């Protein structure tokens, strides 16, 4: 396969987003292109149509390319369970839980084989591949067993473009330092500067310096685009999901768990112009919101204990008739009466842990095998029925409620009573019909006008156009097509 690899000077420089744009640009030009990331570390996963887990970024990139995501696009997914251990998801299925040292010592050869197999599988269907690196390729303490950066560029035999984020400052040192430390720097064929703000003319001297000092072309300087509406996978992107509370907005307070996961569930709410989202790190910061969200977590019991120690259960008892309390996946499980994890599948072995007590009689039991599935159904808010779709990924099993939130063809899911809402369905707010039905009575109670009907926009196309307009696309295309 022909292809390109995007590496970065650090995490959150925009590698995933650049890859998303390149997938769309190549697809628009008629190439059969697939995204690829050999090893991803994220608790924001994507469920394929076959009920398998891959990194959310690769799912998004596949959507941008107009193809169905498969496990070959992200054969290794690491999902941190704590600061020391991670689940190893191999070709979409959980296989092991390892700490960092065990992973380096025990998994390396298996990882290389998985990467080779995945690339071979993709080559049967696709002519081009856009590969995403991870973090920085200059981590000298990790490069001897690299499974995600320059070693993968060697496996796939593709050129590398190095991306740097100018928004943070230090862009020159980050590029030059990376090139000084990265193995096989000759495979890097050009540079991209991302998230630029201001007058590009002020950076012309910087471009000349970089090209003269490194001997590499600067393929482009991409301006910061705040409202691209494309999900961010990296947890560093959490900080961007904040719009300050104001009088003419729905106030949404979100608990920021120590083991927060699937924060992308909140992005559709954030995109509503009359919704103000704020993160809560201490119970006393909650105040009197219109909506309090208890989001997903990778360690439900550990995060539950964190909040109970701060007095969250008592706070919720006083809030439950005043504002909506929404629990998503692990947050939903916390809202019940009891949680049981005698074997430690959630990461904390415990026979019985008291929940927050918002949903009487609800009990969650954690099991070794996760439930992973895509689902669609119907919900009803204030007499208005709406469609909803999303995916489930959870080890906890909770019995169907007598007051279900969602009705599927073959059952029900979640809980809805008064202003208490809970669901395991990730992406619950992503469907505009469901989101608007939920927000409508809240807007009415706040005397907020109904929003104008949303105009469907091609978010991937708009982002791709933005990137293409600010890079030397003919030069990048030439690099992809003639490298081999």
From TrEMBL:
UniProt protein name = Cobyric acid synthase
Instruction: Tell me the NCBIfam families matching this sequence.
Output: cobQ, PRK00784.1
Q: Where is the CobB/CobQ-like glutamine amidotransferase domain?
A: 251-432
Q: Is the keyword Ligase in the record?
A: yes
Enumerate the InterPro entries for this protein.
Class_I_gatase-like, CobQ/CobB/MinD/ParA_Nub-bd_dom, CobQ_GATase1, CobQ_N, CobQ_synth, GATase_3, P-loop_NTPase
Gene3D superfamilies tied to this protein: 3.40.50.880, P-loop containing nucleotide triphosphate hydrolases (3.40.50.300)
In Pfam terms, one family for this protein is GATase_3
Q: Which family does it belong to?
A: Belongs to the CobB/CobQ family. CobQ subfamily.
> Care to name a GO molecular-function term for this sequence?
ligase activity
Q: Which residues does UniProt mark as catalytic?
A: 329, 426
Q: Please name the PANTHER family in this protein's record.
A: COBYRIC ACID SYNTHASE, DETHIOBIOTIN SYNTHETASE
- Pathway of action: Cofactor biosynthesis; adenosylcobalamin biosynthesis
Task performed by this protein: Catalyzes amidations at positions B, D, E, and G on adenosylcobyrinic A,C-diamide. NH(2) groups are provided by glutamine, and one molecule of ATP is hydrogenolyzed for each amidation.
- Tell me which UniProt keywords the record has, alphabetically: Cobalamin biosynthesis, Glutamine amidotransferase, Ligase
Q: Name one GO biological process term.
A: cobalamin biosynthetic process
The record places domain CobQ/CobB/MinD/ParA nucleotide binding at 4-227
């Amino acid at each position: 396969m022909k292809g390109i690899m995007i590496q970065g000077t650090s995490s959150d420089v925009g590698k995933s987003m650049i890859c998303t744009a390149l997938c769309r640009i190549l697809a628009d030009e008629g190439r059969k292109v697939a995204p690829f990331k050999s090893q991803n570390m994220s608790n924001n996963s994507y469920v394929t149509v076959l009920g398998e887990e891959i990194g959310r970024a690769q799912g998004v990139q596949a959507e941008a390319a107009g193809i169905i995501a498969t496990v070959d696009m992200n054969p290794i997914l690491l999902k941190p369970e704590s600061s020391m251990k991670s689940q190893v998801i191999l070709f979409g299925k959980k296989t092991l839980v390892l700490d960092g040292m065990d992973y380096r010592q025990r998994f390396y050869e298996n990882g290389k084989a998985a990467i080779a197999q995945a690339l071979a599988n993709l080559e049967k269907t696709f002519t081009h591949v856009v590969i995403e690196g991870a973090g920085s390729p200059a981590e000298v303490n990790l490069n001897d067993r690299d499974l995600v950066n320059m070693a993968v560029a060697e496996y796939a035999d593709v050129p590398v473009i190095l991306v740097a984020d100018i928004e943070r400052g230090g862009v020159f040192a980050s590029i030059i330092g990376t090139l000084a430390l990265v193995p096989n720097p000759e495979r890097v064929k050009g540079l991209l500067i991302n998230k630029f703000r201001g007058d590009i003319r002020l950076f012309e001297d910087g471009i000349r310096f970089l090209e003269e000092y490194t001997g590499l072309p600067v393929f482009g300087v991409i301006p910061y685009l705040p409202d691209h509406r494309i999900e961010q996978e990296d947890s560093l992107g959490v900080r961007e999901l904040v719009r300050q509370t104001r009088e003419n907005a729905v106030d949404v307070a979100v608990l920021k768990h120590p083991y927060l996961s699937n924060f992308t569930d909140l992005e559709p709410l954030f995109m509503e112009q009359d919704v103000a989202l704020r993160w809560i790190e201490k119970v006393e910061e909650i105040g009197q919101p219109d909506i309090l969200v208890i989001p997903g977590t990778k360690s439900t019991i550990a995060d539950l204990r964190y909040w109970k120690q701060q007095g969250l259960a008592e706070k919720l008892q006083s809030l439950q008739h005043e504002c909506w309390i929404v629990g998503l996946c692990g947050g939903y499980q916390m809202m019940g009466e009891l949680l049981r994890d005698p074997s430690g599948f959630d990461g904390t072995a415990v026979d019985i842990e008291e929940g927050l007590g918002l949903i009487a009689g609800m009990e969650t039991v954690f099991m070794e095998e996760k439930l992973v599935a895509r689902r669609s159904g119907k919900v009803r808010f204030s007499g208005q029925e709406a469609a909803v779709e999303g995916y489930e990924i959870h080890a906890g099993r909770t019995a169907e409620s007598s007051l279900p939130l969602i009705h599927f063809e073959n059952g029900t899911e979640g809980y809805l009573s008064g202003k208490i809402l809970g669901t395991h369905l990730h992406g619950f707010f992503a469907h505009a019909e469901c989101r608007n039905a939920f927000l409508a009575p809240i807007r009415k109670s706040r005397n907020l006008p109904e929003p104008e009907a949303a105009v469907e926009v091609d978010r991937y196309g708009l982002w791709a156009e933005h990137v293409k307009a600010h890079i030397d696309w003919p030069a990048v295309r030439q690099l992809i097509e003639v490298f081999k």
